[in-house]
Write a structure and sequence with these properties.
Elements (H helix, E strand, L loop, with lengths): L1 E4 L5 H12 L4 E6 L4 E6 L2 H5 L9 E5 L19 E3 L2 E3 L5 E5 L6 H13 L4 E3 L17 H14 L3 E4 L6 H7 L2 E4 L7 H8 L5 E4 L6 H13 L5 E5 L16 H9 L4 E3 L1 H5 L5 H11 L3 E5 L17 H17 L11
Parallel strand pairs: 7-8, 7-14, 8-9, 9-10, 10-11, 11-12, 12-13, 13-14
Antiparallel strand pairs: 1-3, 1-4, 2-3, 5-6
Bound molecules: phosphoenolpyruvate and manganese (II) ion.
The site of phosphoenolpyruvate has 10 residues, from loops.
């Protein structure tokens, strides 16, 4: 149930309402906007229906939950959420780009790539230390050593980093290093993992699974939000269709739908959607045009030597070109992309 308070509701009236809901063993999530306070009452709707909440002073409107996701929904939180990661604001006018190799390899190659990402206007670094590979015989990531290399690249460049956490037992470890915890497409519906990261205070970049509908995607986000962590970024990375010309089919429309349905920032990963470096820049342009709040792009100083996903990875000069292209698109729709160092 969503309870909208009157603009003139007093603090006393607000407290009475919260007490009444909590006394029934239900939980309360509050969204204080500039205009209104909105209370999400979480628990058995049947109990709530017997409480005559709509008759309480200070209450303007009571809405039953029409959608199964409540905390993620725009009904509950009409204003778009902004998420701060060190000095980077996600969900504002600036489109944030996170770049980096698919996997952390050596300290030297990561640092060179990170410097190139920064020079082109990238605001964050992204690379995997724990890799969910389709084949068990492929490189599985450096584990904690990879996190240490990421930490060094962050110190050297000042770029905060996003890295994947694959299982509940490593959440604590990855938490100690990462600025943003990534949940990969293969774990979008790993509910225990979602609950675990929901109990942390670090932003979570939640990727859409390859066979996950938009509704299921929002419900996956709801798992994290309902544990208390409100810092969730959604990331569309392509879904599985009959088409084989690209690695996945980028569901570009999902950005428009998600922005309508939810207040959470929405990003796009053109690299895993494309599977081939040639389509990455055009998809990135489309992503910005439709309103993505950020992008994750695979970049490597030598894609031909990359330990994973080399075929879809951009060389620094191509990444710099991508940045220049999306800057123009962003400008056309009243948004910005950070300038590169030579700009
Ligand atoms: C990744 O981002 O490194 C990755 C493995 O992507 P996805 O989970 O979207 O397949
Ligand atoms: Mn990859």
């Amino acid at each position: 149930m969503i309870i909208v308070l009157r603009p003139d509701a007093s603090e006393e009236q607000y407290k009475q309402l919260v007490d009444k809901i909590e006394s029934q063993g239900l939980r309360v999530h509050v969204s204080k906007g500039t205009e209104r306070t909105i209370i999400g009452a979480i628990g058995d709707e049947r109990i709530l229906q017997n409480l005559s909440i709509d008759a309480m002073p200070g209450v303007e409107n009571v809405l039953p939950i029409l959608k199964p996701y409540k905390l993620a929904s725009r009904d509950f939180h009409p204003e778009k959420s902004k998420i701060q990661v060190r000095d980077v604001v996600i969900g504002g006018d600036e489109v944030i780009v996170a770049g980096g190799p698919c996997s952390v390899e050596t300290g030297d190659s990561l640092l060179k790539t990170a410097m190139a990402v920064k020079a082109a206007g990238g605001k964050m670094l992204r690379a995997g230390a724990f890799k969910p590979r389709t084949s068990p015989y492929d490189f599985q990531g450096l584990g904690e050593d990879g996190l240490k290399i990421l930490d060094e690249a962050r110190s050297a460049t000042g770029l905060p980093f996003i890295t994947e956490v694959m299982e509940t037992r490593t959440v604590e470890l990855v938490y100690q290093y990462a600025d943003v915890l990534q949940i990969g497409a293969r774990n979008t519906q790993n509910y225990n993992l979602l609950k675990e990261v929901g109990q942390t205070d670090k932003p979570v970049l939640l990727k859409r699974g390859m066979s996950v509908s938009i509704k299921e995607f929002m419900l996956a986000a709801e798992y994290i939000l309902s544990e208390g962590n409100q810092k969730v970024i959604l990331c569309e990375r392509g879904i599985r269709t009959f088409e084989t010309a690209t690695r996945n089919t980028l569901d570009i429309a999902s950005v428009a739908v998600l922005h309508y349905e939810t207040h959470l920032p929405v990003w796009i990963d053109p690299s895993h959607a494309a599977g081939n470096w040639r389509w990455v820049t055009p998809l990135a342009r489309a992503a910005v045009a439709i309103g993505a709040d950020g992008l994750i792009v695979e970049v490597h100083v030598k894609p031909e030597n990359a330990w994973s996903d080399g075929a879809q990875t951009l060389r620094p000069d191509k990444f710099s070109n991508l940045m220049a292209e999306i800057r123009k698109v962003a400008e056309a729709i009243g948004r910005t992309v950070a300038p590169g160092e030579s700009a």
